[in-house]
Design brief:
The chain has six helices and 13 strands. With about 260 residues, the chain is α/β, with parallel strands linked by helices. Strands 1, 2, 3, 4, 5 and 6 form a six-stranded mixed β-sheet that branches. A four-stranded mixed β-sheet has the order 7-8-10-11. The chain has a three-stranded mixed β-sheet with strand order 9-12-13, with no helix packed on it. Strand 7, helix 2 and strand 8 form a beta-alpha-beta unit.
Length: about 260
């Protein structure tokens, strides 16, 4: 029999993913042009094993109406308009999502990177490249109701990019749900540090200068690619990794000290 833990699915995330796939449009008084299209907003997740506390339901159904889970159980009447999604051999846990956890990630585990001159600036680091499932840690999360969590790099000022994982016991390729979620930063340093920066003010100054450098670096590459200049700019993965933040395509989270 297949280990059900390998098929852990967060009920909350299933609902969220389905909603993102077919987003509901806000009401409008403006008339539609052409043939009106109504996106399907009703789903039936069928043949699932649902674990809820001490209860375990086999061949159960979950009905999702728009953004609402309207029914959960066995022998549920499924409306004809519902799109069926087969969850045979899948286990559904109605669980929480931990918005922040962290683990140490070193540049030595990503040797192909072209680093920043300061070792505390590592925005090119991605948890997804080094994440390994820890059954004991994941069991602790599941034991208190958390089925999914965001994992961010632990160390540094501009630390790197987080990953969303499920708290199952499968391999990283199975448990990783989304990579390069957000950049993470902490504008402080550990006590007793001898190298620059050695104070919160220095950390803020270094982070600010790094973003200015990243903007300049992007402009230099744009000029080179457009043929405005002929000298090829240097490769710098740490500055390149901040391009999505500068353009607003990636969020950055600042950790409070």
């Amino acid at each position: 029999m297949r280990n059900p833990v390998l098929s852990v699915i967060s009920l909350i995330l299933v609902s969220a993913i389905l909603v993102i796939t077919s987003p509901a449009q806000p009401p409008s008084s403006r008339p539609n042009k052409g043939i009106e299209e109504n996106a399907l907003q009703f789903y039936a997740l069928v043949n699932a094993v649902i674990v809820d506390g001490d209860r375990r339901m086999e061949n159960a159904t979950i009905l999702i109406d728009g953004t609402t889970i309207s029914a959960v159980g066995q022998d549920i009447d499924i409306p004809k308009k519902a799109k069926r999604i087969d969850l045979t051999d899948k286990v559904v846990y109605p669980g929480f999502i931990d918005a922040f956890s962290s683990e140490a990630v070193s540049l030595t585990t990503q040797p192909d990177s072209s680093p920043h001159w300061n070792e505390l600036i590592t925005p090119q680091i991605s948890v997804a490249r080094t994440y390994k499932t820890n059954p004991a840690t994941n069991a602790q999360f599941r034991g208190v109701g958390f089925t999914t969590r965001l994992v961010a790099p632990k160390n540094g000022i501009l630390k790197g990019q987080s990953t969303v994982v499920t708290n199952g016991d499968g391999s990283a390729t199975v448990e990783i749900m989304r990579t390069h979620v957000m950049q993470h930063a902490r504008l402080s340093v550990s006590r007793g540090r001898d190298d620059y920066p050695d104070s919160p003010m220095g950390a803020v100054a270094l982070a600010r200068q790094t973003f200015l450098d990243a903007s300049w670096h992007e402009q230099q590459w744009r000029a080179f690619n457009d043929g405005v200049v002929t000298k090829r700019p240097e490769r710098n993965d740490s500055l390149d990794a901040l391009a999505h933040v500068l353009s607003g395509r990636q969020s950055i989270v600042f950790e409070a000290a």
